[in-house]
Amino acid sequence: MQNEISKDVDHKRFVAEPLTWVVNYADYLYAFAMSRLRNEAVAKDLVQDTFLAALQRLDTFEGKSQEKTWLTAILKNKIADFYRKKSSVALRDLKISDAEGEQHNFFDAETGHWNKEHSPGAFGLEAEDPLMMKELRAILNDCIAKLPGLWSAVFSMKHMDDLESELICTELKLTAANFWVIMHRTKLNLRACLQKNWN
Amino acid sequence: MTNALKNIIYNCNQATFLIEKKMAGKISAAQTLQLKVHLAGCSVCKLYMQQSLLINRLFSSFSAADFKLDEAFKISLTKKIEREINKN
C-alpha cells in the first residue's frame, strides 16, 4: 500500500478530498493524538478541530505532500497549542513555589527523610506479566489525568513526545530549575498514586 | 567528608531529585557519586528508583494503535465536514 502511493509521487500532485478524510484518516489521527495525550475526550476534540481547520485552509494545501502528512502536521500544532494553553492556565492557578511546598508532604522538611506514610512500598510484581503491565498502565493514565495541568504538560512532552528539556522550557516558559522541580514532583505523585490504586 | 556528601547521605528528597534528573537528563560526576553513596545505604530510595524506571517503561511501551474512534463519532464528524463544505 505504502509502495503504491510513493510510486505515484513523481507523476501527480496530491489532491485534497475532504469527503474521504474521516474514512481514511480519522482512526490514524485519533491514535496519533492518543499516543500523545492519553485522554480520549481531548483526542477526539483535537481530531475534529484538525479536520475543521484543514477545511478552512484547503487553499494552502499545495499537493506537495500527502493529505495524511498535511493533516498530521495540523494535528501536531493543535496538540502543542493544547499543552501551551493547559500550562498557562495551570501557571495562573498554581505557582511553582506551591509545588516545592507540597514536597514536604513526601519528605520531612528538616531532614529530607521519607515521611513514613509516603515511603515507597513494593508493588508486589516481581515478574513483568503483560496483563499486569496493561492494568498498571491504565491506572497510571488515570493518575496522569489527576495531575495539575502544567505538570502533566511537562511530563507528557518529556515522556510521550521525547522532547529535549530545553525545548520544553522554551515552549512552556519555564526555567531549567523549575522544570526539574516539576519532573521530580510529578514522578513522586505518580508513584504514590500508582501504589495507592494498585495495592 | 564534604558537606554536599553529608547532606545527601541522609536526604531522600535530594536523592530522589537526582534520580529523576539522572534518568531524564544528566547529573555531574560529584552528584553521581553522592547518589551512589546514598543508594548504597537506603533501600527505600533504591525501591523508588526501580519503580520510577517502571513508570517510564510503562509510558514508552504504550501503544495507541488499539484506539479506534467509535462509529457514532465518525458519522457526526462526516456530517460536520459535509456541512462546512456546503457552506462554501
TrEMBL record, chain A:
Gene Ontology BP terms: DNA-templated transcription initiation
Sequence ranges assigned to domain RNA polymerase sigma-70 region in this UniProt record: 24-87
Signal sequence region: none
Residues in coiled coil: none
InterPro entries: RNA_pol_sigma-70-like (IPR039425), RNA_pol_sigma-70_dom (IPR014284), RNA_pol_sigma70_r2 (IPR007627), RNA_pol_sigma_r2 (IPR013325), RNA_pol_sigma_r3/r4-like (IPR013324)
Domain of life: Bacteria
Alphabetical list of SUPFAM superfamilies matching this protein: Sigma2 domain of RNA polymerase sigma factors, Sigma3 and sigma4 domains of RNA polymerase sigma factors
Family: Belongs to the sigma-70 factor family. ECF subfamily.
Pfam families found in the cross-reference section: Sigma70_r2
PANTHER family: RNA POLYMERASE ECF-TYPE SIGMA FACTO, RNA POLYMERASE SIGMA FACTOR HI_1459-RELATED
Alphabetical keyword list: DNA-binding, Sigma factor, Transcription, Transcription regulation
Protein name: RNA polymerase sigma-70 factor, ECF subfamily
Example of a GO MF term: sigma factor activity
Protein's organism: Pedobacter soli
Classification via Gene3D superfamilies: 1.10.1740.10
TrEMBL record, chain B:
Domain of life: Bacteria
Lineage: Bacteria, Pseudomonadati, Bacteroidota, Sphingobacteriia, Sphingobacteriales
The name this protein goes by in its record: Zinc-finger
Organism (species): Pedobacter soli
